Amino acid sequence: MALINENYLKLKAGYLFPEIGRRVREYTQANPDKKVIRMGIGDVTQPLVPSVLKAFHEGVEELGNATTFKGYGPEQGYDFLREAIAVNDYQARGVDIKADDIFVSDGSKCDTGNIQEIFGQNNKIAICDPVYPVYADTTVMSGKTGVCLDNGYFEGIIYMPCTDDNGFVPELPSERPDLIFLCFPNNPTGTVASKEVLKKWVDYAIANKSVILYDAAYEAFITDESIPHSIYEIEGAKKVAIEFRSFSKTAGFTGTRCAFTVIPEELVAYDSNGQAHPVKPLWTRRHTTKFNGVSYPVQKAAAAIYTEQGRKEVKEVIAYYLENARIMRESLTKAGYMVYGGVNAPYVWVKTKNGMKSWDFFDKLLNEANVVGTPGSGFGPSGEGYFRFSAFADRDNVYDAMERIKNLTF
Ligand code: MLT
Questions:
Q1: Which of 23, 50, 128, 271 is deepest in the core (most CB within 10 A)?
Q2: In the structure, what pLDDT confidence band is assigned to residue 236 with cuts at 50, 70 and 90?
């Protein structure tokens, strides 16, 4: 008799974004004449920039030529990309990360989900609330939790509420976690962490022999000079943090797929006898066993963002999305909403009106304004009463959506 992984039965509904997709599909099928504007899932709308596209084409051409053809590539990624990442994303900011610390992959969603595999089953996991649902759902799938309680929390996870009161930045938990998921710039609230905040977390992780799983997928949207782009800008972080980065939002690779995870040599975790072990060899073993690398043309395309021209083009696209966010913040504020985020991040986080529940607001917005966003409660119980708008949209749609929202009556 084949037995299922019963941890999957603990998961409540479907994954958040397919659920939104299902509701939107239902609505559009019933109302084919309505123009629905999608600002739900953070999916890019601008095309790949010319430098990236050119490199992508060249990579494909090379595969069609016997002298330049490539089969399996190195599982951790081609040296040219790992080197470009180490030099441009880290060494240029005074951070000593080497190409060898970088593992190129097909997405940060996969990496943040898979990373728990190299850590023991008895680890206590801390996550923010609200949070990118992947961290919580994959913790449940891995069997480290009990059931989902009435308050929406899973037994066994340490939740760190991020609310208006603490500026959506988590406080140190009272119970000691072993693995701590942090995401800055934050999905969904759009908040950032200052050097002081990150230092507090790094010191805490060092003192408690914990590991920080730092999701920096949105670092390219940081506009404030004083905000760290990498957790490794904090002294001591290489001993206690794994960093996840992605080309998805940075360079429009949501469909193309390319990301990377950084595991420095110094990072250790412990066996049941308290003996320290470097973590990097474990992830190397996992990655080389279960993954065969990102395709060559995609890695070549990703490397193009580190050329002078590529960098300039990608920056323009990011500025376009950030201008969307600015327009959204301004319009929503004028329309009487409390608005957060959207300055150093592509997400604008708003409080619903009249204490409306997030999913009720979602339905009202879809039915009456034909605009799709993401209900805050889908990111966790503390997101109830909030709503997330994604700035990854075409400008005309942004104006249109803001006008429709302004005209909503309550
Ligand atoms: C989001 O909308 O939260 C993201 O697009 C999801 C993701 O990156 O997987």
A1: 128
A2: very high
User: Is the distance from the beta carbon of residue 257 to the nearest atom of ligand 1 less than 6 Å?
Assistant: no
Pocket test of ligand 1: the residue of 17, 19, 390 to mutate, having most ligand atoms within 8 Å of its CB, is 17
- For ligand 1, the distance from its centroid to the CA atom of residue 389, given in whole angstroms, is 12
Residue type, 406: K
Residue ID of nearest Cα to ligand 1 atom 4: 42
In this structure, which residue's CA is closest to atom 9 in ligand 1? 109
Last residue of a domain, one of 280, 306, 332: 306
Q: Decide if 2 is inside a domain.
A: no
The response to whether residue 187 sits with its C-beta less than 6 Å from ligand 1 reads yes
pLDDT digits (tens, 9 = 90+) for 99-117: 999 999 999 999 999 999 9
Domain boundary among 306, 339, 367: 306
We report the CATH number of the domain holding residue 224 as 3.40.640.10
**Model confidence band, residue 155 (pLDDT cutoffs 50, 70, 90):** very high
Residues 237 and 156 in one domain: yes
- Element housing 154 (H / E): none
One-letter amino acid at 315 equals K
Nearest CA to ligand 1 atom 1: 42
340 sits in which H/E element: strand 339-341
